[in-house]
From TrEMBL:
Single Gene Ontology MF annotation: 4 iron, 4 sulfur cluster binding
Protein keywords: 4Fe-4S, Iron, Iron-sulfur, Metal-binding, Oxidoreductase
Protein known as: FAD-dependent oxidoreductase
Record-linked PANTHER family: COB--COM HETERODISULFIDE REDUCTASE IRON-SULFUR SUBUNIT A, FERREDOXIN:COB-COM HETERODISULFIDE REDUCTASE SUBUNIT A
Region forming the signal peptide: none
Length: 457
């Protein structure tokens, strides 16, 4: 590709204390926590809606926020407020009321007890309300495209706005882009997918369907659930097999992930699979979206032809954002590994607790490897602190952790909890006049616990 030089005076410069980049689940938690703890906070989001994967990606339900034995709720704080408020609005069912092996959990059991079904449209509104109440300023359609750095600090981020190119200067930045875009632009070292190979987990495009004969459909699911073991639900395996034999199913997956929402008869379908995609590249994202939409049509035709109760199934909507499980991981002060998670390693600087399984989607064919954790594990604060940048924190799926570890903590309750920790740390950092790395960890943990977070040993 040819190179050009381009010089321009930027006339729009916005200033704030804390800039949160990315309004997904991590950014939502981070901005509310920073604002509630006294920092002037601006949240920018490149799309026109909050929620990231939870809304534009139509991903759902919130995966379990309980321990692996489904006994104790481990993610509370801002996450629980969001669930309760969305439920009060008729847009969710609180996780305490949702069991595994039901239509809400796609008849899975392990790590699928106490999931949170929600309606993306209502969730987005509740997120906006909570952010505005916290005093956070929100700006949509703002995308970070570069950083100006000085002495291992970000001086400005460069953004695209409707007005053109602009700059935003903050005292502290929290990268919640999922892809670690800001960290990458700031020169923080990162790696893609599995460190040794660069292979990333496959992408998927979620969609929603309705107009199903619910009794007939549920009857079929219920009739087939007795064949399941504790980990893998595949109630429609026989139909997928038949469709494959007839050439009606070309997807690299043998199951239909179907999660009923709080509106009876409305389902989120997690089944398409587009592998070998690098979602930090525009051309790859485009290719995956086009192939994903094609696969949606194939799955709808499959449902109509093969699944009892789906004779008149209708497509309600297809996600506008590609479902990206994995891209960049930052190099931070500590790399969380699968061994840490499975051995429940103790961390003095733990900032949240989580219990979802290590759920690795095969990148080179169908299937998943699903490894349950021993009750729960914790995430250390150091995973949120990038190398070579003193005024930034990272929260969400791109923190410093191995590909396998991320296959657990990437799910949304953990992202909100990490966001809450990052936002709280940012506010404390500003108040105490030290960089995020030197924040008093006892103070941070106590503040998080006072504000509802669960941090176990
Ligand atoms: C197919 C699939 C199925 C999944 N299933 C589940 C599930 O059932 N339950 C569950 O809990 N989790 C599930 N997950 C995981 C979960 O959805 C994501 O890992 C999680 O939402 C990541 O949250 P995040 O806040 O880190 O990133 P995101 O939700 O991706 O949010 C990042 C936000 O940053 C914005 N952004 C990105 N770059 C920029 C930029 N340069 N400038 C400005 N804004 C930017 C994006 O538009 C987005 O809004 C699934 C994920 C996928 C892909």
């Amino acid at each position: 590709m040819n190179e050009i030089q381009y010089t321009k005076t930027i006339k729009t410069v916005i200033e704030t204390d804390v800039l949160v980049i990315g309004g997904g689940t991590a950014g939502f938690g981070a901005a509310i926590a920073a604002a509630r703890n006294g920092a002037k906070t601006l949240l920018i989001e490149r799309l026109s809606i909050l929620g990231g994967m939870a809304t534009a990606g139509l991903v759902g339900p919130f995966m379990t926020c309980y321990d692996n034995d489904a006994e104790e709720q481990l993610v509370k704080g801002i996450f629980d407020e969001l669930c309760l408020r969305t439920e009060a609005r008729g847009g969710a069912i609180h996780p305490s009321k949702v069991e595994g092996m039901t239509s809400y959990s796609s008849y899975y059991m392990a790590s699928h007890r106490h999931v949170t079904p929600y309606q993306s449209e209502i969730l987005a509104v509740v997120m906006e309300e909570m952010l505005e109440e916290s005093g956070t300023q929100i700006l949509f359609n703002v995308q970070v495209t570069d950083c100006i750095t000085k002495d291992e600090k970000i001086d400005y981020v460069i953004v695209n706005m409707k007005e053109g190119i602009a700059a935003i200067r903050a005292k502290l930045y929290i990268d919640c882009t999922g892809d670690a875009d800001v960290a990458y632009f700031a020169g923080v070292p990162t790696w893609l997918g599995k460190k040794e190979t660069g292979i990333m987990q496959p992408t998927s495009l979620f969609f929603e369907v309705g107009n199903i004969d619910r009794d007939k459909y549920l009857g079929e699911l219920e009739a087939n659930k007795s064949n399941l073991d504790n980990h893998v639900a595949n109630c429609f395996a026989k139909y997928v097999k038949e469709a494959k034999a007839n050439g009606d199913w070309t997807l690299d997956r043998n199951e239909l992930g179907n999660y009923e929402q709080n509106i009876p008869g409305r389902w989120k379908i997690n089944t398409t699979r587009i592998a070998h995609i690098d979602a930090t590249k525009t051309s790859d994202i485009t290719k995956a979206l086009i192939e994903g939409r094609r696969q949606v049509q194939e799955v709808i035709a499959f449902m109509k032809k093969y699944l009892p109760g789906c004779e008149n199934v209708q497509l309600i909507q297809v996600a506008t954002a590609l479902g990206v499980r994995e891209t960049r991981h930052i190099v931070g002060k500590y790399e969380l590994t699968a061994e840490d998670i499975l051995s429940r390693k103790h961390f003095d600087d733990a900032i949240c607790t989580f219990g979802y399984a290590i759920d690795v989607h095969n990148s080179t064919g169908g299937g998943v490897t699903f490894t349950c954790v021993d009750k729960y594990y914790t995430i250390p604060y150091r995973c949120l602190i990038p190398k070579n940048c003193d005024n930034m924190l990272v929260a969400g799926r791109s923190i410093c952790g191995s590909s396998e570890a991320a296959a657990s903590y990437r799910v949304m309750p953990a992202c909100i909890a990490m966001g809450q920790a990052a936002g709280t740390a940012a506010a404390i950092s500003l108040k105490s006049g030290v960089c995020p790395e030197n924040v008093d960890i006892v103070n941070l943990r106590n503040t998080l616990i006072e504000q509802g977070a669960v941090i176990k040993d």
